[in-house]
TrEMBL record, chains A, B:
The UniProt record lists the keyword Nucleotide-binding: no
The keyword Transcription is assigned to this record: yes
Keywords (A to Z) from UniProt: DNA-binding, Transcription, Transcription regulation
Organism: Paenibacillus harenae
Name of this protein: DNA-binding Lrp family transcriptional regulator
PANTHER family tied to this protein: LEUCINE-RESPONSIVE REGULATORY PROTEIN
Length: 144, 144
DNA sequence: CCTGAAAATATATCGCC
DNA sequence: GGCGATATATTTTCAGG
């Protein structure tokens, strides 16, 4: 993992659909060499995937919240988490609560319905997101 | 936005680097038609970007935490948030705290240093992530 | 590990329905 | 909106340093 690998990671973090040819021009290296480096970064698990970012509001999902959760039946709760489309992220945490969920719903009413379902599994505390300042800041600094 | 648009979104959410030709085969539509639909989805802001997912641990970042924050100088705090590479996500929230941060650091020691810096801006409460069950579940159901 | 060249794919841009 | 055809660009593959 040298500086060129970091440049590749940084570039793909900004735009995962860039062509390898264009990247190879940006970083002044032949296109087959970039292809091979990229293949290795994927193989080693440094890059775990590529995803399109989709605007929740354009899909009618206008409410985002984080829910702290305390469950005493973790297996059951995780099955529920997997099966529930509103739960976008699911983290196991230390401290008073044992789960943190990111939840995306259509309106605050839909969020309320979701939270009522949650009450079947334990105790929760909700933080409503008013706005997102930024998300997914790059882990690789521009000069690494 | 019909069923085909949802198929395009779902496919790109799973793999943002798929070729349009391959997508056009999967959804049985001509390549120029898929290209045109994709162009419109980007133009309308339904798709806001494409990013590579990078494994924090492969970059030596082994600690993730969420930090609840109460600041009484929001402008100052947001400038700090932008400038601080450890802060990966920054949300404005309602309730007792006014910010929620996702923080990624190398070790728990680096997290501690970060939290000490934070104390200059207000009061915080930290939830350490033990493990991530899943992240970025698709907002578009497979049959929409 | 990288380059350069050639063959196989993919994309952009037509005119047409 | 979508299709087919074609010109341009990109990716894959591989011999050679």
């Amino acid at each position: 993992m040298d500086r060129i690998d970091y440049q590749i990671l940084s570039t793909l973090h900004d735009n995962a659909r860039i062509t390898i040819s264009e990247m190879s021009r940006m970083i002044a290296m032949s296109q087959p060499a970039v292809t091979e480096r990229l293949r290795k970064l994927e193989e080693q698990g440094v890059i775990t995937g590529y995803r399109a970012e989709i605007s929740p509001s354009k899909l009618g999902k206008h409410t985002t919240a984080f829910v702290l959760f305390k469950s005493n039946n973790c297996k059951e709760f995780e099955v529920f988490g997997e099966a529930t489309p509103e739960i976008v992220d699911l983290y196991r945490t230390g401290g008073e609560y044992n789960y943190l969920l990111k939840v995306v719903t259509e309106t605050s009413e839909t969020l309320e319905t979701f939270l009522e379902t949650c009450n079947n599994f334990g105790f929760s505390s909700t933080l409503v997101v008013l706005s997102t300042r930024f998300e997914d800041k790059s882990l690789v600094g521009s000069t690494e």
